[in-house]
Design goal:
By secondary structure, the chain is an alpha/beta fold. Helix content is 41%, strand content 18%. The structure holds NADPH dihydro-nicotinamide-adenine-dinucleotide phosphate and 2-hydroxyethylsulfonic acid.
Length: 251
């Protein structure tokens, strides 16, 4: 264990990101909690006080990300661990009827956003010869399913970036890992179905999905390995899932 680290979590206002923030805080780390919804971040701060630095930002906006991360208060630098978690899926329609704006949101958030944040944090890690980047991919990056072409492509891109990043920093002491969750019940499906509750709920009907905390357990376990160990990647499913679309449902 390495308590007292500064951990930057993107997408800390909900789901896996919020659970990661809570888990690192519970382990004695301090968390820079980044997302767009300021009020959610303020709630995290209210519950954990000085151990949380809320950072309102949109990972798609490179200038905003850069301004926010280059002006962190001195006591919040350097960032020891970066959890690149902010992301979303938008839509489940076939690609020929998709709204191209949804493609942009997914590509800009899941791929460019991850790069925008990494660009601000990784150079310092390499310079210091220490640090850990943990990217949240998905089983969707390892497979493709109908209605998921672009989302799956963004997560496949995350996998390529993780592997390439690990090669590029090789020898510096910086660690790069990836966690690929299967189905996790968060706000993910609500966002994917544009706020429609019935189709979002149906995704998890008759099966037991992962909880965000299950993924956070994996993320903190990876971060807590000794400095000479890098867990390259982990695929974590609920026991009711064995692949995209391969879900055991009861009732
Ligand atoms: P949630 O919708 O619950 O959380 C998504 C988080 O990402 C929110 O905190 C949201 O914050 C943040 N976010 C989205 N867009 C932006 C943006 N432009 N700038 C900053 N933050 C942003 O979903 P999950 O927790 O499930 O998703 C987290 C990650 O896990 C995603 O990368 C997702 O692809 C991945 N994943 C999810 C799985 C699942 O089944 N749930 C399975 C596999 C991977 P805000 O809206 O406040 O900006
Ligand atoms: C999210 C999991 O199965 O909806 O990455 O693609 S899935």
């Amino acid at each position: 264990m390495s308590p007292g680290r500064v951990v930057l979590v993107t997408g800390a206002s909900s789901g896996i990101g919020r659970a990661c923030a809570e888990a690192f805080l519970a382990g004695g780390d301090r968390v820079v909690a980044a997302a767009r919804r300021t009020e959610r971040l303020a709630d995290l701060r209210a519950r954990h006080g000085d151990a949380v630095l809320p950072l309102t930002l949109d990972v798609r906006d490179r200038a905003q990300v850069s301004a926010a991360l280059t002006s962190l208060p001195a006591e919040w630098t350097p960032v020891d661990v970066l959890v690149n978690n902010a992301g979303l899926a938008a839509g489940r329609g076939p690609i020929h009827t998709d709204d191209p704006d949804d493609w942009d949101r997914m590509l800009d958030t899941n791929v460019r956003g991850l790069l925008n944040v990494s660009a601000c944090v990784l150079p310092g890690m390499v310079e210091r010869g220490a640090g850990h980047v943990i990217n949240i991919g998905s089983n969707a990056g390892r497979e493709v399913y109908p209605g998921g072409a672009v989302y799956c492509a963004t997560k496949a891109a995350v996998e390529r970036i993780t592997r390439g990043m690990r090669m590029d920093v090789l020898g510096s002491g910086v660690r790069v890992s990836q966690v690929d969750p299967g189905m996790v019940e968060t706000e993910f499906s609500l966002v994917r179905f544009a706020g429609e509750e019935a189709p979002a709920r149906a995704v998890y009907e008759g099966m037991t999905p992962l909880a965000a905390e299950d993924v956070a357990d994996v993320v903190t376990w990876i971060a807590d390995r000794p400095p000479h160990v890098v867990v390259a990647d982990v695929l974590v499913y609920p026991v009711d899932q064995a692949g995209s679309g391969r879900v055991a449902r009861r009732g």
